[in-house]
Design brief:
Blueprint (H helix, E strand, L loop, with lengths): L2 E7 L5 H11 L7 E7 L12 E6 L18 E5 L3 E2 L4 H11 L4 E4 L9 H10 L2 E4 L7 E3 L5 E4 L6 E4 L6 E5 H6 L17 H11 L4 E4 L5 E2 L9 H24 L5 H24 L3 H19 L1 H4 L9
Parallel strand pairs: 1-2, 1-4, 2-3, 6-12, 7-9
Antiparallel strand pairs: 4-11, 5-13, 6-11, 8-9, 10-12
Helix pairs in contact: 6-7, 6-8
């Protein structure tokens, strides 16, 4: 098996980026190339193992991944963010699971939701954002009709089918990735805060008929090179973008591709519960600034759905 490692970065992850490069350098199956897609205007990082090739592209979580990958001449691509630690036999095992299960995409469980605190799990469940499920032996992550997702609450060490995953790392064939035309979703880079691009990418794969897997308890570590400082302005951008994204994702990927009328009605009930619950909580806490922010995000998302820009986007086809 030959593969190319492709990394999206701003070049600011420092030692965490060096950890990723060192991890790639220790893989039992070495990458044929390491291509680093760095945002325009950012400096080439000093961290190196002497094997990387840098390519400047437009800045954006989608823009730095929704590429034609002309530089890739291998069948497989290992997609990576710049702040990960990978065990030495990581790629070898991922490829083995991919082949053994006749799947198209495999991603590690980078952010283990099953390990969240109990109170946090309860609030996420009530809001419909994230819901724990019993281990049924098959599914890892599933997308729900309210734009949230459910997760396996007690995954055993191993492989599960999934409808969505974390975007920090995944392995698939170049040809399969290009099939989903991820560049059609560049509208997400216009949001005030980057959220949801991984859910859009993976669920689009799922709707396109690609079989995707989640590998639990695999040893990967997310080192989190992003800024951990949360100020009031950043929190507002995050809340706005979350509600803006949730509304558009629901319409574009859940409601619109569904041709069954009863199923559509149920989807409408689900999204209004999810949105209504959090609006109610903001009202209950007398957080009227946040309430207006959420309302404005939903309204502007609906305006975007009605716009010519949205109408020019190709419709999502449900191939499953």
């Amino acid at each position: 098996m030959e593969y190319t490692a492709v990394i999206r970065t701003l070049g600011t992850a420092g030692k965490k980026y060096q950890t990723l490069l060192d991890s790639l350098n220790r893989q039992t199956i070495q990458p044929s190339k390491i291509l680093v897609y760095i945002a325009e205007g950012y400096a080439i990082p000093k961290e190196t193992i002497g094997k990387e090739q840098y390519i400047y592209v437009k800045k954006g979580m989608v823009a730095q991944r929704a590429l034609p990958y002309h530089e890739v001449d291998t069948e497989f691509i290992l997609f990576l963010d710049d702040d990960l630690f990978l065990p030495d036999s990581f790629v070898e095992k991922m490829y083995s699971f991919l082949e053994k299960n006749h799947a198209d995409v495999i991603s590690p469980d980078v952010f283990p939701n099953a390990e969240r605190p109990f109170f946090g799990k309860c609030m996420m469940m009530l809001s419909g954002r994230m819901v724990a499920r019993r281990d049924d032996g098959k599914w890892g992550y599933k997308v729900m009709r309210n734009s949230g997702y459910s997760y396996n609450s007690h995954p055993k060490s191993g492989i599960y089918s999934s409808q969505t995953n974390a975007g920090a790392c995944f392995l698939c064939r170049k040809s399969e990735f290009l099939k989903i035309h991820f560049e059609e979703e560049l509208w997400m880079d216009q949001m005030k805060y980057p959220v949801g691009e991984d859910q859009v990418m993976y669920y689009k794969m799922y709707l396109s008929g690609l079989k995707q897997l989640t590998w639990f308890h695999c040893g990967i570590k997310h080192l989190d090179a992003g800024s951990t400082m949360v100020n009031e302005e950043k929190e507002k951008r995050l809340i706005y973008s979350d509600f803006y994204f949730k509304t558009i994702f629901w319409y574009r990927f859940i409601y619109q591709p569904d041709k069954n009328m009863l199923s559509r009605i149920w989807s409408v009930i689900c999204i209004w519960y999810a949105l209504g619950f959090t609006l109610f909580i903001s009202t209950l806490k007398c957080k009227f600034v946040i309430l207006r922010l959420k309302y404005r995000a939903i309204k502007e998302a609906i305006d975007f759905i009605k716009s010519e820009e949205y109408k020019n986007l190709p419709l999502i086809k449900k191939m499953i």
